[in-house]
């Protein structure tokens, strides 16, 4: 089957039938090319989704207060729920086993000034552990610490772009004072965040300070917590349920009231989005496989045509002593050889296209489009297999050619 | 060399059965040059196909060089064809994308002979038919007579016991026909057994023996005075 002479014979045939070879190879090249590019783009989409979510921790619950819709324990319906500092303390105390970190969060938005410059930013009143949620990276200085919280110091940590906007390029904001809501804060740190520009146009101040300068109360707008990842997905779900129950009881909300408290589980949201990305990739994969099948059918068609065209030649070969198996081998080996080479060419072109694309389609949510080696090898092997299968039916028909029929003069 | 006894062959087309060969008794000794004649439908092509193991037969027996040829599977038939027989066709049947010597070497390829030796032997046979200078040419670059000479060289390449020629001059003009027949006579002079199917009287008379077929039976079988083809060239 793999003797040098057979290869010689196949190379001779290919060399002297270039158009035929090109035609049968072309569909395969195209099929693999489209498959590679589509699959790579699918992967790119998935990468984009990944990048979108992975800059924030995914073991996060956001807890929002709502408004009750049912009367309970003597309270009327329509009551607004308000979280306070002791909610954080209580959760910390009663759910210590599940917790990785917990931080209150007060969200404000407003004008921030430094000397002549000013701009509108979101300002978060947070605790030190809030940093674990956003996965912020400190460039200069420090983040908020417990001392800031306890003493209600007037310090701020600002995003990279806030520094650039207000202080200008290459300036150092550390130690300078900025003004928000008529209160001056000393900048103690500058951070960066992979989540994009919006997450770098943010300032953080101690939540206790914000409470003090605003109304001197202990109200917080939401609670952010991270659970210990070792409890797993099921553990997180259970934690979410018991936490909801706990807070409803504490705030006198009816157990079946769905709008008193909301918990957003980021892991669930990420999972839903990843599922969406996976579905898209499945669709892309199906389209790709469809293209491959079209390519295979293309080979099969061309092999049928080739065998028909070669009927006479194969008849002569049989008259000269070619056995049926040597005829099958000849046709099949040629088809597999062409398929493999053409597939490889398609593969290389596809990968080059994906490479040249790079991150230029980032705006369309395609990041680093690429195809795994395993997928590629798999696709090629499948293609060769189907190429052989597609070639086998015509090849067997070729082997059945009766020399007398083939040699009969028209 | 060839022994045929009471050979019957019929073709079934649907419910009809066409009895083509109705009891052929026929033998050929080594070194003979036999013409098989007959009008179309006489069964001469069928007989040649059976002789060439390209087709089977129903009853009777066919021995080639002492070997019974009956109900062979395809692989065995292919091997016997390769070893025992050389074919010459009316339309030459050269492979059009192979050069003259590659065509000649093809039977040797199926004997698994090494490429270098194949080429040497092919060139030798091309030399005997006087076409060595054309060894690297494609069939399309050769004239009809040259093509048939290449085909004869190919038939000779595997040193077969019997050459079977089906209307070898059917596609050629009379001058080239005589050239080709001269070559066949020369090969026969060297002792090769050759069967020629033809419907042309003058071609038949260049053989040593003429067998007439009519409606599936041999109506006459006689030795004739051989006319040398060279005389007519």
TrEMBL record, chain A:
The keyword Lyase does not apply. This is ABC transporter permease. It is a multi-pass membrane protein. Keywords: Cell membrane, Membrane, Transmembrane, Transmembrane helix. Pfam families: FtsX (PF02687), MacB_PCD (PF12704). It is found in: Cell membrane. The chain crosses the membrane at residues 21-41, 282-307, 327-353, 373-393. The keyword Transmembrane applies. GO terms for cellular component: plasma membrane.
UniProtKB/TrEMBL annotation, chain B:
InterPro entries: AAA+_ATPase, ABC_transporter-like_ATP-bd, ABC_transporter-like_CS, MacB-like_ATP-bd, P-loop_NTPase. Keywords: ATP-binding, Nucleotide-binding, Translocase, Transport. The keyword Transport applies. SMART domains: AAA (SM00382). The keyword Transport applies. SUPFAM superfamilies: P-loop containing nucleoside triphosphate hydrolases (SSF52540). CDD domains: ABC_MJ0796_LolCDE_FtsE (cd03255). GO terms for cellular component: membrane protein complex. It holds the Pfam family ABC_tran. Residues 2-233 form the ABC transporter domain. One of its GO terms (molecular function) is transmembrane transporter activity. PANTHER family: CELL DIVISION ATP-BINDING PROTEIN FTSE, LIPOPROTEIN-RELEASING SYSTEM ATP-BINDING PROTEIN LOLD. Belongs to the ABC transporter superfamily. Macrolide exporter (TC 3.A.1.122) family. This is ABC transporter ATP-binding protein.
């Amino acid at each position: 089957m793999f003797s040098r002479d057979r290869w010689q014979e196949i190379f001779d045939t290919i060399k002297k039938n270039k158009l035929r070879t090109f035609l049968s190879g072309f569909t395969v090249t195209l099929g693999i090319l489209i498959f590679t590019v589509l699959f790579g783009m699918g992967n790119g989409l998935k990468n984009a989704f990944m990048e979108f979510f992975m800059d924030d921790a995914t073991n996060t619950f956001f807890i929002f207060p709502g408004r009750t819709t049912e009367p309970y324990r003597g309270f009327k319906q329509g009551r607004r729920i308000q979280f306070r500092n002791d909610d954080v303390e209580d959760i910390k105390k009663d759910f210590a086993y599940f917790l990785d970190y917990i931080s209150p969060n007060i969200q404000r938005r407003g004008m921030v000034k430094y000397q002549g410059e000013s701009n509108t930013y979101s300002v978060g009143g947070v605790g030190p552990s809030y940093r674990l949620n956003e996965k912020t990276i400190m460039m200069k200085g420090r983040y908020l610490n417990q001392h800031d919280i306890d003493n209600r110091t007037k310090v701020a940590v600002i995003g990279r772009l806030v520094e650039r906007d207000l202080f200008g390029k290459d300036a150092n904001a550390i130690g300078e004072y900025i003004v928000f809501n008529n209160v001056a804060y000393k900048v103690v740190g500058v951070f960066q965040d992979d989540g994009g520009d919006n997450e770098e146009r943010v300032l953080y101040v101690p939540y206790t300070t914000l409470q003090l300068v605003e109304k001197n109360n202990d109200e917080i707008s939401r609670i952010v917590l991270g659970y210990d990842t070792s409890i797993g997905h099921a553990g997180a779900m259970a934690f979410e349920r018991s936490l909801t129950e706990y807070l409803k009881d504490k705030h006198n909300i009816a157990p079946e009231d769905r709008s008193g408290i909301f918990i957003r589980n980021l892991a669930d949201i990420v999972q839903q989005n990843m599922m969406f990305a996976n579905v898209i990739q499945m669709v892309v994969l199906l389209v790709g496989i469809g293209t491959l099948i079209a390519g295979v059918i293309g080979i099969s068609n061309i092999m049928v045509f080739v065998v028909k065209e070669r009927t006479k030649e194969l008849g002569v070969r049989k008259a000269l002593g070619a056995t049926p198996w040597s005829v099958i081998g000849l046709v099949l080996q040629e088809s597999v050889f062409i398929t493999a080479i053409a597939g490889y060419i398609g593969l290389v072109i596809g990968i080059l296209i994906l490479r040249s694309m790079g991150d230029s389609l980032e705006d369309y949510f395609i990041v680093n489009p690429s195809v795994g080696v395993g997928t590629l090898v798999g696709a090629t092997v499948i293609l060769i297999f189907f190429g052989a299968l597609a070639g086998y039916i015509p090849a067997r028909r070729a082997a059945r050619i009766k020399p007398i029929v083939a040699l009969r003069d028209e | 060399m060839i022994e045929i006894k009471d050979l019957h062959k019929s073709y079934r087309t649907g419910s009809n059965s066409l009895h083509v060969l109705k009891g052929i008794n026929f033998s050929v000794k080594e070194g003979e040059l036999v013409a098989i004649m007959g009008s179309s439908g006489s069964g001469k092509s069928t007989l040649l196909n059976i002789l060439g193991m390209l087709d089977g037969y129903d009853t009777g027996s066919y021995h080639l060089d002492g070997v019974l040829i009956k109900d062979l599977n395809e692989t065995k038939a292919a091997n016997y064809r390769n070893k025992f027989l050389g074919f010459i066709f009316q339309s030459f049947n050269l492979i059009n994308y192979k050069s003259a010597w590659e065509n000649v070497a093809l039977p040797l390829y199926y004997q698994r002979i090494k490429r270098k030796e194949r080429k040497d032997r092919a060139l030798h046979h091309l030399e005997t038919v006087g076409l060595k200078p054309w060894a690297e040419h494609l069939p399309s670059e050769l004239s009809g007579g040259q093509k048939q000479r290449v085909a004869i060289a190919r038939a000779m390449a595997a040193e077969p016991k019997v050459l079977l020629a089906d209307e070898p001059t059917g596609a050629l003009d009379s001058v080239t026909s005589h050239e080709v027949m001269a070559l066949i006579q020369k090969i026969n002079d060297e002792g090769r057994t050759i069967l020629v199917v033809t419907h042309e009287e003058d071609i038949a008379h260049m053989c040593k023996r003429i067998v007439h077929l009519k409606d599936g039976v041999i109506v006459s079988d006689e030795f004739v005075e051989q006319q040398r083809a060279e005389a007519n060239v």
